[in-house]
From TrEMBL:
The keyword Oxidoreductase applies. This is CoB--CoM heterodisulfide reductase iron-sulfur subunit B family protein. It comes from the Bacteria. Signal peptide: none annotated. Keywords: Oxidoreductase. Residues 4-85, 154-242 form the Cysteine-rich domain. GO terms for molecular function: oxidoreductase activity.
Length: 296
């Protein structure tokens, strides 16, 4: 049995609670055990380092150390958390040999707060690659009870997932991890230019129109290639592409109405899990067209 220290992150416990619900549903269905790290802090989503690299490294060294206490790999379903936590983990592992003074400084700060020191003996893994590399696509195929045969899915990887760590073994310019999941589920992958680009979320607070134009461009491209939905492994991408889609439509003066699914929601549908249990009704853009395509 696979077992992970589960790092749900902030957004899945707030604006995207359906992501946490569907992640738990998928892992339970596949027989994967999650041990939630309840004392974990926000990873900072890349903003801590704007003020202090030491701050980002210390906060996330603590998060990783909480997984090390359980002697388990850390599992996240957020590309941004994966990017930050994974980058910190790789940097601090490098420091063990090449910059022990810096690592000792971080562990000194953790000790002052009665936290376990960072050991560098675990991995940070996004659920996408945990399912592909640890669980296996063949085993997922064996567990399917519903083929998603009529569905055309456009992956949206986002910024962080493909650019942070070595273990993904993905070509950042030509990834196939999500598309391989789609094929196993019986869905048809849709390829389009923006699938591995930024959704625009980081711009939203100070360049709102630019952010919405960027997101709108990706959605339009996916629609032009015949996509029935966009599937993302990042809750921040989901927020920009789904919850802000009505505002995006106003900025680009075009109707879009393309459903956006979290990756675990799509997998859960293939595993026969009821749509009512996956929080699909929480989405701003209706997911009914997706369910109708599947005869649900």
């Amino acid at each position: 049995m696979l077992k992970y220290a589960y790092y749900p992150g902030c957004v899945a416990q707030g604006a995207c609670r359906e992501l946490d619900i569907s992640t738990r549903a998928v892992t339970q269905s596949l027989g994967i055990e999650l041990v939630e790290i309840k004392k974990a802090a926000c990873c900072g989503s890349g903003t801590f380092k704007e003020d202090s690299q030491l701050l980002e490294d210390t906060v996330n060294a603590r998060n990783i150390a909480l997984a090390e206490e359980l002697n388990l790999p850390l599992l996240t379903h957020c590309s941004t958390c994966q990017g930050v936590l994974g980058r910190v983990n790789e940097r601090l592992k490098h420091c063990q040999e090449h910059n022990p003074v810096y690592l000792n400084q971080i562990n000194g700060l953790l000790t002052k707060e009665n936290c376990s020191p960072y050991q560098g003996n675990t991995e940070v893994k996004h659920i996408l690659y945990a399912l592909i590399q640890d669980y296996g696509l063949e085993k997922i195929a064996e567990r399917l009870t519903r083929k998603l045969s009529n569905l055309k899915c456009a992956a949206f990887y986002g910024c962080y997932l493909l650019r942070s760590e070595k273990h993904t073994k993905e070509d950042p310019f030509h990834p196939e991890g999500m598309e391989n999941i789609f094929r196993v589920l019986g869905a048809t992958p849709v390829y389009y230019r923006g699938r591995n680009q930024c959704c625009g979320w980081p711009l939203a607070s100070y360049g709102t129109n630019e952010s919405f134009k960027m997101a709108g461009m990706h959605i339009e491209e996916a629609l032009s290639q015949g996509a029935d939905c966009i599937v993302t492994p990042c809750p921040l991408c989901h927020l920009n592409l789904d919850s802000r889609q009505p505002e995006i439509e106003k900025v680009i003066s075009k109707k879009l109405q393309l459903p956006i699914l979290h990756l675990p929601q799509l997998i859960a549908l293939g595993l026969g899990i009821s749509p009512q249990l996956l929080g699909l009704e929480r989405h701003i853009v209706s997911t009914k067209p997706v369910l109708e395509k599947l005869g649900l």
